[in-house]
Backbone:
């Protein structure tokens, strides 16, 4: 590992990186290196679905980022989990399979000037790697690597919430992935037979490990990209400097470098390499190779407001998991049938609707859980309750990711700037009213729900927006920090094929490339983008060879 040359170097073995490694190493004539800063995914809690509780906040599997103090959250600092292991965030996330809405991709096509990003063009790339539990149809694929299953549980309380949502005017929806996700129903998940299905299992094992042209380095962190003058007088990325934990290694790429370190890691690496906003780079003594103001700008995330309601006469996970017999029952059910609470995604039930009737499309998403706690990672409450977390699907607030120093070991400064626009504060207030309207329906009356948080005494827009700042937290969907865009967009870091503007041989393939956040969970859209990028890289190699 003192010096190595490959055709392709993929930085980050997360959601996008694992798929790219699979697709590019299929060409036996091309040598592929996959670099991952974390360790292998051999930690048992990665694979048990409820194990996200033990992976988030654990240095074994999480980068342990934190946000800056956020004015929109009344000065609070949030934990900001990002996966640091094979599979990346697909090894610690909520496992929810969600594409978003067709209009998300049609909007990307407008922003990039490339019709290839429209929903009808993206759909085949979702289907290509999908293995849908109901089999293939016009909108789903079967036989691919990415398994999508029903959840292996049900709760009386959640069934009642579905009925209450319908009484409140939200239609039933048993498939959120057909272009319009409006409605209420149980989420489908990336699991296989009750185990988490991460991208390392799906795309690396066993096929990549058996390919002689594939090499993988784990526990290896990229210090910076190697960017040099190209033969045409411009800049070209020719590799990366990598710290293996023992030595600094120079890895060379003769074709392309694919940066897949995520919405936080990719802008950090670019800035450390001299690609980014010139004032930020100069502040830290980094030579400016390419002034791209959009690197680390445009950060978007889904902020979930956790409304909690106490209930009576129904079992929730609060009381079930707070007793020795309940824990024994949970463990036995999972051991015998891979079902029950240990097979749970963090959120089991979803609802997509409009914060007000005037909204032209569903603009809020509920994640409903038969449990409650003060904050993620804290103990469950000692009373029965459920949580109806709600997020603004299309926030207008924008944040930043900026390096703190020229040291690659130092985490960047993450400033989401939540609730920093009047539009976002209004949607926050309105979405809490939607939660109250659902809970007030007859279907839930038998459980006598009482609003515990934020509290029924808060009614005005200003009160609800301020309380949202007190109780809201990230839902772990950062995107947009290396966005693609049209030639006349001054913040566009990438072109429509995810190539870094002004630096040949370099693409960014992760959620940071999204110009706007999708209307739902972001893992599967990232896989779709990687599937498209793999095709472009192969075509470019063919053109070069020709």
Residues:
């Amino acid at each position: 590992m003192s010096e190595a040359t490959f055709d392709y170097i993929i930085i980050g073995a997360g959601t996008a990186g694992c798929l790219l490694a699979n697709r590019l190493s299929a060409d036996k004539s091309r040598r592929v290196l996959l670099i991952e800063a974390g360790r292998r995914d051999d930690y048992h809690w990665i694979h048990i679905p409820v194990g996200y509780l033990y992976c988030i906040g654990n240095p074994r599997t999480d980068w342990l980022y934190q946000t800056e103090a956020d004015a929109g959250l009344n000065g609070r600092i949030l934990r900001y989990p990002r996966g640091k292991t094979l599979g990346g965030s697909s090894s610690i996330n909520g496992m929810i399979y969600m594409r978003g809405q067709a209009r998300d991709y049609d909007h990307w096509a407008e922003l990039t000037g490339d019709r290839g990003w429209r929903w009808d063009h993206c759909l085949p790339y979702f289907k290509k790697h999908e293995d849908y539990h109901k089999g293939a149809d016009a909108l789903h694929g079967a036989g691919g690597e990415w398994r999508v299953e029903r959840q292996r549980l049900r709760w009386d309380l959640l069934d009642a919430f579905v009925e209450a949502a319908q009484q409140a005017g939200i239609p039933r929806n048993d498939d959120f992935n057909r272009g319009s996700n409006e409605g209420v129903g149980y989420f489908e998940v990336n699991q296989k037979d009750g185990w988490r299905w991460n991208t390392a299992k799906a795309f690396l094992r066993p096929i990549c490990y058996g390919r002689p042209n594939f090499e993988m380095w784990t526990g290896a962190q990229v210090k910076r990209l190697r960017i040099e003058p190209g033969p045409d007088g411009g800049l070209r990325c020719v590799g990366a400097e990598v710290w293996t934990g023992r030595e600094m290694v120079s890895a060379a790429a003769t074709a392309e470098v694919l940066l897949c370190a995520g919405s936080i890691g990719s802008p950090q690496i670019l800035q450390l390499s001299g690609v980014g906003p010139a004032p930020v780079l100069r502040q830290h003594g980094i030579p400016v190779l390419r002034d791209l103001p959009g690197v680390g700008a445009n950060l978007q995330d889904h902020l979930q407001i956790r409304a909690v309601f106490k209930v009576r006469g129904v079992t929730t996970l609060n009381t079930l998991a707070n007793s020795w017999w309940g824990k024994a029952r949970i463990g036995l059910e999972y051991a015998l049938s891979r079902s029950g609470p240990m097979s749970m995604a963090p959120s089991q039930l979803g609802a997509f609707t409009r914060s007000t009737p005037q909204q032209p499309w569903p603009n809020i998403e509920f994640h409903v859980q038969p449990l409650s706690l003060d904050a993620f990672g804290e103990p469950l409450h000692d009373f029965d309750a459920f949580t109806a977390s709600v997020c603004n699907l299309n926030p207008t607030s924008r944040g930043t990711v900026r390096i703190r120093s020229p040291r690659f070991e130092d985490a960047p400064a993450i400033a989401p700037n939540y609730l920093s626009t009047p539009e976002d504060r209004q949607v926050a207030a309105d979405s809490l009213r939607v939660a109250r309207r659902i809970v007030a329906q007859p279907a839930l009356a038998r459980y006598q729900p009482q609003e515990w948080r934020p509290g029924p005494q808060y009614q005005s827009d200003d009160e609800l927006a301020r309380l949202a700042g007190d109780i809201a937290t990230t839902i772990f969907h950062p995107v947009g920090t290396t966005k693609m865009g049209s030639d006349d967009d001054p913040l566009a870091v990438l072109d429509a094929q995810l190539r870094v503007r002004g630096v040949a041989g370099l693409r960014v393939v992760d959620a940071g490339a999204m110009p706007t956040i999708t209307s739902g969970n972001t893992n599967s859209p990232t896989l779709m983008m990687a599937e498209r990028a793999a095709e472009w890289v192969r075509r470019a190699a063919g053109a070069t060879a020709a």
In short: The mean pLDDT is 95. The CA atoms of residues 284 and 341 lie 48 Å apart. The first helix runs from residue 15 to 25. The two ends are 32 Å apart (CA to CA).
